[in-house]
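Record now logged for everyone:
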Amino acid sequence: MIEKNYPPRLPDWISTGGDNFEVVIASEALYIRNLVGSPFPDRLKVDDLKKTRRQFVDATGELFSDYRFWETDALDGAERKYLTERMSAPSELLKRSRGTGLFLTENEASWLCLNTTDYLRFRFAIAGSNIETAYRNARNIEEELQQCLPFAYSDRYGFLTAKPAECGTGLMLRFLVHIPGVIFSNGFRNLRESLLKTGSVLRSVADEAMSSDGHLFVIQTAHTLGIDEEEILTSAQNMIEGLIEKEYEARDSLMTQARYQIEDRILRGIGVLTHARMIACQEGYALANALRLGAAEGILNDTIDVMSATELFVVGQPAHLKVITGEGNRVIMDTHRADLFREYLNTEV
């Protein structure tokens, strides 16, 4: 089973923390590549997909010997969901399993996925806002792969991808951000519009409730064509630095102008956690959001820290609760979610 190798806790690469971790939980560099002369995976039959999967394993030899490999069509839906909840596999894997494959490092920072929308997607992630480190590591992987595989490339369109908007460099830089200050100060719409001007897009995470109630969002570079990789990197760095500044300013303003209201919301959450016997998934995101903000602002110094509150976002998700409980029953899972949150608070009832 998946969880025997990757148990229900934060992936190791996140648990180390990083620069500006209170705002930026993760920075990721993602490449998309396809093979010369091969149709996109959507146009291949299952036997052909399995053949290209085997060809990749053979062609790369020992290059990924320190990665764990799964033929992911052999995993059930719950196991694939478990991996995507941890950001240890792309969300495309939930919709496409036939002939797919996944390589994953022990600390889960790097994965390579075969035969989803495109032949190959691979990612390197780091905790915090240091996107350059994530990019340089992903770039090293890409250069090693180019020695093994003939990637489809056009002088006009760059690297070819299934979605025309992803042609060109085939590189996307992404950030997982926690921005309650911007949300509480009604700056969400302005932020989205300003990000578009910088060539970035703001979107919900895969579970939209985690964004609406947990105030976690993904920011991703939008342009891959007609721009080189260093320009993408510089643009992403400037963008995230500006966002971090806006979020800290929004939090400072809130704590100055509405401290009692913010403290009331956070401490009411502690009251719910102390006494609730069941916590639904969506409510859990809202509570994790309150705990993380409270920890970051020094309101909950003796109750929970930022890293533990971050972990609650991960382990409180449905597939993780199913691993912990061994049950798919919603009542049992909601009961265990309440118990789990109290354990992290170390609250005696």
DSSP finds 15 helices and ten strands in the chain. The chain has a mean pLDDT of 92. The two ends are 34 Å apart (CA to CA). Strands lie at 24-33, 67-70, 101-105, 110-114, 120-127, 153-154, 158-159, 171-178, 200-204, 216-221.
